[in-house]
Amino acid sequence: MAQNFPTQAQVVIVGGGIIGCSVAYHLTRLGWTDVVLLEQGQLSGGTTWHAAGLVGQLRSHANMTSLIKYSTQLYSELEAETGLATGWKNCGSVSVARSADRMTVLKRTAASARAQGVAIEVISAKEAQDLWPVMAIDDLAGAVWLPGDGKANPTDLTQSLAKGARNRGARIIERVRVTGISVADGVVTGVETDQGTISAEIVVNCAGQWARKVGLMCGVSVPLHSAEHMYIVTGRIEGVHPDLPVMRDPDGYIYFKEEVGGLVMGGFEPEAKPWGMAGIPDDFEFALLPDDWDQFEILMQNALQRVPQLATAEVKKFYNGPESFTPDNNFMLGEAPELKNFYVGAGFNSMGIASAGGAGRALAEWIVNGAPTMDLWPVDIRRFANFNNNPRWLHDRVKETLGLHYAMPWPNRELDTARPFRRSPLYDRLAAKGACFGSKMGWERANWFTTEGEKPVTDYAFGRQNWHEAVRREMKATREAVGIFDQTSFAKLLIQGRDAAVALNRICAADIDVTIGRSIYTGLLNDRGGYESDLTVMRLATDRFLLVTGSAQAVHDADWIRKNLTADAHVTLTDVTSAYSVLALMGPKSRDILTRLTSADLSNESFPFATIREIDIGYATAYANRMTYVGELGWELIVPTEFAVGVYEALHDVGRDFGLTDCGYYALEALRLEKGYRAWSRELTPDITPYEAGLGFAVSLDKPDGFIGREALVAAKARGTSSKRIVQFTVDDPLPMLWGGELILRDGQPIGEVRSAAYAHTLGRSVALALVDNPAGVDRAFLEAGRFEVELAGDRFAATVHLSPAYDPKGLRVKV
Ligand SMILES: Cc1cc2nc3c(=O)[nH]c(=O)nc-3n(C[C@H](O)[C@H](O)[C@H](O)COP(=O)(O)OP(=O)(O)OC[C@H]3O[C@@H](n4cnc5c(N)ncnc54)[C@H](O)[C@@H]3O)c2cc1C
Questions:
Q1: Pocket of ligand 1 (CB under 6 A)
Q2: Which of 17, 230, 320, 336 lies deepest, with the highest CB count within 10 Å?
Q3: Following CA atoms 81, 92, 398, 553 in sequence, which dihedral angle do they give, to the nearest 10 degrees?
Q4: Which residue puts its alpha carbon closest to atom 12 of ligand 1?
């Protein structure tokens, strides 16, 4: 063992790339100084050293943008603190559009960037050329200019972060390889290395493209796979100078930055080249892969079109470095659901330099507070499950994810690779009926159904897409007759044990200690009173509850519940998602159909709203839960998987007489939005309380033993009007389509952002749920007094606020 090799530390970080060093830096800034960082080679020698160093702030999620905004601030200040330069240059960036659709994307981006406080200007192609004179512009539709963007030197930045951490007491040790992770009773206890063991309270896996392997040392899934990422560096080019902004040409899949009077040119080609199928060599240090001009050709061709001088420029160096990519092109942060006190910060999808400042801070705060301090769901490791760690699936998926950086971010864009992945028992039946499938949490789900002559393929557009009429048909059937939705992808958790009721009641905001057979809609709140989930709790027995939650939330919700069970509670949690299909039978004729298939009494008196019964349906025995997500009479039939096909066929046999129609998720989304129903991760986030969401009715402040988040809600009530509120809007003009992310204005001033939107066929216009934010408070008077508009790619449309649901089945029905 090396002299002075530590034997214990509060935190051990595995990996000395930019991410590990940023986590060490931020932990020490938060006062946690007993930190040891272990690097198997030299700092930054993994992937970090050969990064191009672009730092662009724009992301599709506001909180992700705010992380990178913080990175830019940190990188500009770090040298003053540590004395080590970072190479940070605030040169700004230009992004150009080759098509009208791309220009729409840039304008939409500009609106949301402004809402997030990022400086951005929509400019003409000529103005772009003034900023970036070496480019040809004859094929361009326009551009945007982000003066706050920049570039940095990745190795210097890593060293500077490491110095900052060391200065506050962290120990950073190179040439130590972690060979194992020690675990006792489901809790991490330290690491084994080639130089001895270190016991630790917390271990952080920042091992870059080795992070999957480090995770497997202790049964933790870190789903990532490497792919080759390439750029060239040219000799001097006339007109290229050190202050030249970064330039992105996403339609050509390429980016440029200045380096020593020449250009760095790289990109994200649509079909990437996976690497490292047999594992990543431990000694892959300051190493590159062979040049691959064939793979690079598509980028080179597009670059020659943009910068004609490249044709005669000398190519001084070809960098081909592997980088790790995740199944959805977002990185992974957080405590692993499989192992307590084991954290992950990995899978940076070629955005690690830009993200490192903010991601390192966010992970350090998560460690110190034991929970994230803001909504980090897009990057939360719990959005993945162990099946996502399948190596063949990852290999096939990352071919597509690398290219997503510059692919058109069409509304409703689905990924095409490595599908189908998870299939409902009804998959073939729905496919035969013309289902156009999308994918959520790996599940194939019908988005919409074709009619005669249509192909089950979505034609993407920012206006109405080719399924517009299909969704009208499905919504009309549900509102006026009856629709059937395959919601098998719903996550289902069974909670059992003699303490189940008491334990769950502390975790749920509503009172779930109800009579057997009741179904309760509730939020699961954090200490801030914000939503960690919203779900339905069904009491099946004194000591047994079935929880049905969103498709993407199985791992997340199970983890949240387990973490909040006391050690001595007599409670078990089992994920029974695969055991049941869910068929939602929704619409005014749903009772007529079900009555013909069951001996159960379905009358309002015997089977009221918010109750669950085990009933016979055809030959099957299944749970029927009287709930609705569409605002109509209906039952969610929770059917053992092996009976799903039989129940589906029986419903259709009878349903023929009642106009039963197969419906997809696009219709479901529009139906719920017409009714103003909120969805977790869209309207309901860890930063939003039930009062701000307008869901105060689903909170039982007076429960005898309280619940997590209660104190925050009591304090919020005492403070009165909140600065945030979820508000339903419709657009007055019947033509525009909203997709989410659009800016909301009140009396001409930005006031919020659309979180979910759809075309409300029942109302004949677009409907949205938006987050309205006003420091002085958002109350009824404020909403009634304002003149609201929504901004769509630069155009503004009048919008109407709805303080009660825009679609009210008891009120006026607008005919489709
Ligand atoms: C060609 C190219 C260009 C890029 N350009 C940009 C860009 O312009 N902007 C941008 O934001 N991003 C860019 N990136 C991405 C960026 O480089 C990465 O996202 C980032 O460096 C990832 O940092 P990391 O700390 O996660 O990984 P790494 O830098 O790989 O660090 C992980 C470290 O863990 C160590 N390790 C692994 N296993 C063990 C073990 N068992 N014990 C001890 N140590 C271990 C490794 O040796 C390694 O040093 C680019 C990437 C490539 C390939």
A1: 14-20, 38-41, 45-48, 50-54, 177-178, 206-210, 214, 229, 231, 319, 321, 323, 346, 348, 350-354
A2: 17
A3: 70
A4: 351
Distance of CA 588 to the CA centre of its chain: 35
pLDDT of residue 113: 84
Rounded to the nearest 10 degrees, what angle do helices 352-369 and 62-82 cross at? 90
Q: How many whole angstroms from 745 Cα to the centroid of ligand 1?
A: 41
Distance, CA of 174 to CA of 152 (rounded, Å):
23
Closest CA to 761 of 465, 481, 485, 476: 476
| 49, 365, 665 from 16: Cα distances, Å | 11, 19, 44
Total count of residues recorded for the chain: 816
- Measured CA to CA, the distance from residue 509 to residue 127 in angstroms comes to 54
Task: DSSP for 93-127, please give it.
Answer: EEEEESSHHHHHHHHHHHHHHHHTT---EEE-HHH
Shortest CA distance to 763 belongs to which of 660, 678, 632, 675? 675
**pLDDT value at residue 309:** 96
* Nearest ligand 1 atom to alpha carbon 355: 11
Question: If you measure from the C-alpha of residue 17 to the centroid of ligand 1, how many angstroms do you get, rounded to a whole number?
Answer: 5
Give pTM, 2 decimals.
Answer: 0.96
161 Cα to the center of ligand 1, angstroms: 15
pLDDT in tens, 327-380: 999 999 999 999 999 999 999 999 999 999 999 999 999 999 999 989 999 999
Q: Which helix (H) or strand (E) holds 293?
A: helix 293-306
- C-beta contacts of 653-658 below 8 A and 24+ residues apart: 654/593, 654/596, 654/597, 655/482, 655/484, 655/593, 658/481, 658/482, 658/589, 658/592, 658/593
Half-sphere exposure of 105 (CA within 13 A, CB side): 23
Ligand 1 atom at minimal distance to the Cα of residue 323: 53
The CA 351 to ligand 1 mean position distance, Å, reads 10
Which atom of ligand 1 is the closest one to the Cα of 179? Answer: 41
pLDDT < 70: residue spans in the chain = 1-3, 809-816
